[in-house]
Design brief:
single chain, about 475 residues, alpha+beta, Immunoglobulin-like, Cytochrome Bc1 Complex, Chain D, domain 2, six-stranded mixed beta sheet, elongated, binds heme C, binds copper (II) ion
Length: about 475
């Protein structure tokens, strides 16, 4: 009897203790991140942009080994323009590091023996002096290891902090480290890594050859190049990032600077969610998000319609003249409710002229009855549609918009020219010996208008006087 009582008592005491412990662990507000236990160890997957490592998912905090090699190397900044980059892991930005809260990161920084300079690393995700910089200074041919615990979830910049700091950053020494919250970020279909940076070269933008760093321009914040992922064209044409209609896309966007802040925008998309400054506050329904130098943002949106969506720094001359332009190509079914495409076009005469209707909708606009008329009507189309880029005199703008004046490219192939006006054009082309690699948007014009404008262009500025007819345009449009 006595024995049984004491057993029961012991058991009930045990149960209440266990309950109390359980309750305490539930009631405990967010665990002190410094006390999150780590189990096991693993080698971190590191990726070069625009790829990101696999999500942490539900894995427990662990000892995460990061091995980063510093590489100084020559690479292309733009077509024909070369630059000596200093890199974390061989790319600009450097390798993406993906951790979760509570991880103990064992960070090994290796400075390749062929390198010329000492470097170090300051990770904004580190709580400690210099963000690791004071412990990580490493000479060529050496390696150092230090360790830190990730205490705050978010997206953080890392960069070299060796004097002159600005120069090390300007040469490409930055990247992103993500600290995921417990349980990981919500699942999305696509994730990409993009980082803006400004570059300062002795020669002006586009001047070919190996370009040295220009300290005076850097101090003046007078950038020759403002680019995503280290070079002009890193995310355009065949390098574009991709998604399918209906998918959710998450962009980890950083800004290495060294000087400029980024007004990050995707033309034709609205950010459903933005983790402002890479932190925990989520803003919704954002058009353009400001990313400070040495800062980041996580941007999420669903793609509802197909097309090419252009990523820019909306300080817009940087996008169209200094390189801060990328592309997200979305494939899939059209959704005419979300976006109709062009339904109707008329000529808008504020002073009260007649509205011209598209053929098919109503009897067409005035049809040219002679070549002279075609040229005259074409000139009107040109001065409304083409001249902003190709310029009123057809001279174009060096390294941005190719000339139509005396253009060997234009004169060589009329079908190709028609196709360009119908479909737009991206990718490298050579016009009169100069390379262009930019974007011409599709021009929403009728066959008649395209015939007119191209006839005008072919009869202007020393071109070969080809006459383009609406029939020719229709044939190209139908794929013949
Ligand atoms: C938004 C700027 C823009 C507009 C507007 C524009 N273009 Fe272009 N165009 C470009 C760019 C940029 C290229 C080069 C594309 C590339 O690099 O692949 C180009 C290339 C061309 C080319 C081939 C290259 C050459 O120089 O011969 C032709 C022809 C052309 N455009 C004609 C036109 C015509 C005609 C119009 C008006 C109906 C027009 N473009 C409107 C930007 C534009
Ligand atoms: Cu450095």
């Amino acid at each position: 009897m006595h024995k049984r009582t004491s057993q029961t008592m012991r058991l009930s005491k045990f149960i209440s203790l266990a309950l109390a412990a359980m309750l305490a662990s539930c009631a405990q507000p967010a665990t002190d991140p410094t006390t999150i236990p780590v189990s096991g160890e693993m080698v971190a997957e590191l990726t070069s942009p625009p790829i990101v490592p696999a999500p942490v998912g539900s894995r427990k905090a662990t000892k995460l080994k990061v091995e980063m090699e510093i590489v100084e190397k020559e690479a292309e900044m733009a077509d024909g323009v070369r630059y000596i980059y200093w890199t974390f892991g061989g790319s600009v930005p450097g390798k993406f590091i993906r951790t979760r809260i509570g991880d103990e990161v064992a960070f090994t920084l290796k400075n390749h023996p062929d390198n010329k300079l000492p470097h170090n690393i300051d990770l904004h995700a580190v709580t400690g002096p210099g963000g690791g910089a004071t412990s990580s200074f490493v000479a060529p041919g050496h390696q150092i290891t230090f360790s830190f615990k990730t205490l705050n979830p978010g997206l953080y910049v890392y960069h070299c902090a060796t004097a002159p700091v600005g120069m090390h950053i300007a040469n490409g020494m930055y990247g992103l480290i993500l600290v995921e919250p417990e349980g990981g970020l919500p699942k999305v279909d696509r994730e990409y890594y993009i980082m803006q940076g400004d570059f300062y070269t002795k020669g002006e933008n586009g001047q070919p050859g190996l370009q040295p760093f220009d300290m005076a321009k850097a101090i003046d914040e007078d950038a020759d190049y403002v680019v995503f992922n280290g070079r002009v064209g890193s995310l355009t044409g065949d390098n574009a990032i991709t998604a399918n209609v209906g998918e959710t896309v998450r962009l980890f966007v950083g800004n290495g600077g060294p000087n400029l802040v980024s007004s990050f925008h995707v033309i034709g998309e609205i950010f459903d969610k933005v983790h402002i400054e890479g932190g925990s506050v989520i803003n919704e329904n954002v058009q353009t998000t400001l990313i400070p130098a040495g800062g980041a943002a996580i941007v999420e949106f669903k793609v509802e319609v197909p097309g090419t969506f252009i990523l820019v720094d909306h300080s817009i001359f940087r996008a169209f003249n200094k390189g801060a332009l990328g592309m997200l190509k979305v494939q899939g079914e059209e959704n005419k409710t979300v976006y109709s495409g062009k339904q109707q076009e008329g000529i808008y005469h504020p002073e009260g002229g007649t509205i011209q209707k598209m053929p098919g909708e109503a009897p067409a606009a005035r049809k040219a009855s002679s070549v002279a008329e075609r040229i005259e009507f074409g000139k009107q189309v040109y001065s409304k549609t083409c001249f902003a880029c190709h310029q009123p005199d057809g001279q174009g703008i060096p390294s941005a918009f190719p000339p139509l004046a005396n253009s060997d490219y234009l004169n060589a192939d009329v079908k190709r020219a028609i196709k360009i006006v119908i479909e737009g054009k991206t990718g490298e082309i050579i016009v009169n010996g100069k390379k262009y690699n930019s974007v011409m948007t599709a021009q929403a014009l009728t066959d008649e208008e395209i015939a007119n404008v191209l006839t005008y262009v072919y009869h202007s500025w020393g071109n070969n006087k080809t006459v383009v007819t609406p029939k020719m345009v229709a044939r190209v449009r139908s794929g013949h």
